[in-house]
Amino acid sequence: MKIAIVSSFVPFVGGGARNIVDWLAVELERRGHEVETVLLPFSDEPSLLFPQLAGFRTIDLTDAVDLAICIRPPAYFIKHPRKVVWFIHHLRTYYDLWETDFRLTADTVITRSRRDALRRADTSALGEASRIFVNSTVVGDRLKKFNGIESTVLYPPLPSDHQSSALEAGDAITYISRLDLTKRQHLLVDALALTTSNVRLVLAGKAADESYATFLREHAENLGVGDRVTIDDRWVSDEEKADLIATSFAVAYLPVDEDSYGYPSLEAARAQRPVLTTTDSGGVLELVSDGLNGRVVAPTPAALAAAMDDLYLDRETTAELGRKLSQSVSELDISWDTVIEGLLS
Amino acid sequence: MKVIVANNMAPFMWGGAEELAVNLVDRIRRRGHEAELLRIPFRWEPVGDIVAQMLAMRAMELPNTDRLIALKFPVYFLRHEHKSMWLLHQFRQAYDLYDAGMSHLQSSGRGDELREAIARADQQSFGEARNVFTNSLTTSDRLWHYNEVPSEVLRPPLNDPELFTGGHSDGYIFAGGRVTVGKRQHLLVEAMAHTSNKVKLVIAGPPESAKDTAGLEKTIERLGLGDRVKLDLRLLSRAEVAEYANRSAACAYIPFDEDSLGYVAMEAAEAGKAIITTTDSGGVRGMVQAGNNGWIVDPTPRALGEAMSAASQSSSLAKKMGKESREFWRGMNITWDYTLDRLLS
After folding, report:
1. Which of B49, B50, B60 is the mutation pick for testing A, counting most A CBs within 10 A?
2. Considering the domain A2-154, what is its CATH architecture?
3. Looking at the domain assignment, is residue B337 inside a domain?
């Protein structure tokens, strides 16, 4: 089959939304399909929203491909008679984040009108799709709540050829993700200062905004834990990532109300390391349960510090949680066969 | 520096322009910049959608990008404060093909109106660009003729010059490139009937149709040249093409009225081989100084046969002319180094 994978991107910014496109393309090709990736640039500047939606709308792939799989918003505004959406998140500042500090714009009659117009436009564009899948029940619930649209969950896997390294777990808990306020690396630095064991912390990933990386470094120094935390502000290759995780005793992942369990959780599971997360991390909780295959604690420095000490000190339990996390991934049927069977059904 | 190279795309269509765009991105990265390729779908039909697609380019945003290099209509309508164009060709349907009565715009009944709208938009867009480069004198001439826009010719360099190292001659004449009537490989086969038994010819490249293959095979049989002409008609790897060129005595390239210097001739020169071409081969003539680094002869079997005999007869002559060929070509300075200096200036 001739398939186009359509998505939006911010130039020179990597991350989960681009990975899912690249990996899906590889897996489809592996199964004998012809794949063309259509990545269209997108700026989240509010005043430019609607002209850009109109731009996306003029992209018409009718006759050029048999099927268009749309991933990151607003990719589903393109035209094709057989449009399948694998919905990974809304433009969240106009949806679930509207009532939070992450809205980034003032709440005025203009911004509210824009929000409402986008919601109507989304509902209508998504309504054209022949099938709608989501990457998590959290996102499925939001789609139901805000757009009145039903969907089916298809959990995104890691690429099937990713390898994990079999290395000795060291004395660090590792958080590999974009350094970003919404990923809350700073909470772990706060927590580290309250730990009583010799646990170390590794924060690795490219900062979207360099000032956050600088802040993390200064903050660690001020709290007197500069020598127990490594802050590596750069893009980390898959191989390095596998090694970093394998040499850690646990993985931390505590985004604010994340859309899905997140790739860091899957990478932890592949290395049989447990995940430390927080009660407000959203989709992560679809995979990680407290005491079962990781730790889920309140998003406070004190609670995180206690959990870090526990994981560090009781290595036997920690290793067992890691093995359980790997089992959970199999039980949730997180695999490319399931994904592709669903998307092409 | 963050550089976006923009090209248009039709899903599953791949040709010289696509190859060039990929290579340009690669070369910019090797120079230590960040570069990404942006490919935006464009369809020529229905003609009623063309203007909307042009407007869509104006609506798209390129956040987080320092430079834009646009290669084609309509992606050069993208807005960016530091936009350069490296025009591979205009939307010829609105210009020279229109004048020649060969444009699909005419059949729409609104051809004049569309053509004017395109010319007006082009005018504005060329005016916004910091630099306007083209890939050939022909493109520059058209741009001046139709839009009165001055431009600088930047001929696309070889994508992989490092493969064409040259080397010891195995004594055959090599004819590479796409195999089709317009490239006139059949004329080379006929010329072989006018040469001595010593002269050998290798034709290698992807045939445009089964008819092209059958035609050549039939001529070879008719003239009894089976033991002196080798056909290798398929899409060869770049390494295979280079191997054929590197081990030849000289290269023949005789397309009818080519716009550009021709990659096949450029590869021959890079490999240090003399070039045989014809008086009506257009731009390819720019690669040859007759008698010094090759032959420019009438497009007849007899004249070509004489040139091929001369190239095969004396290996020292072929070697000397091959050396001149490389020097002449190097003197033209069509290199990625120079191209990037200009494109990023």
Report:
1. B60
2. 3-Layer(aba) Sandwich (3.40)
3. no
